[in-house]
Amino acid sequence: MDTELKTQLSNIETFLQKQMVTKDEFGEFKQEVNNRFDKLESAVNNLTISVEKFAAMVKKYQDEHETMKHQLMAVQD
């Protein structure tokens, strides 16, 4: 085999080795993805709770407004 071909094969082998991911590296990456997903899921749950609390507060104020409106109408009659 000529030297140029050996060099090219060696370069290809080196390139492929750099592209490979070890099982441990993949495990670490997978764990990091899972951790980020858990944080994102937690943030979404917290946001959902906040939106639900806000909706309940708006509903409460709407109900109070309706009650006051009816009381005012009753006083005016």
Summarize this entry quickly.
The chain is mainly α and 77 residues long. It has a domain at 24-76. It has helices at residues 3-19, 23-76.
Question: What does the average pLDDT come to?
Answer: 91
pLDDT < 50 runs, ≥5 residues:
none
First and last CA, distance? 108 Å
Radius of gyration of CA atoms, rounded to a whole number: 32 Å
What is the makeup of the main sheet? none
- Percent of residues in helices: over 70%
Shape type:
rod-shaped
Helices and strands, in order, run as: HH
Number of H- or I-type helical stretches: 2
Number of strands: 0
SSE-based structural type: mainly alpha
Share of β-strand residues: under 5%
Descriptive report:
This protein has 77 residues and is an all-alpha fold. It has a domain at 24-76. It contains 2 helices and no strands. The longest helix has 54 residues, at 23-76. The chain is rod-shaped and about 110 Å long. The N and C termini lie far apart (108 Å). The model has no long low-confidence stretch (mean pLDDT 91).
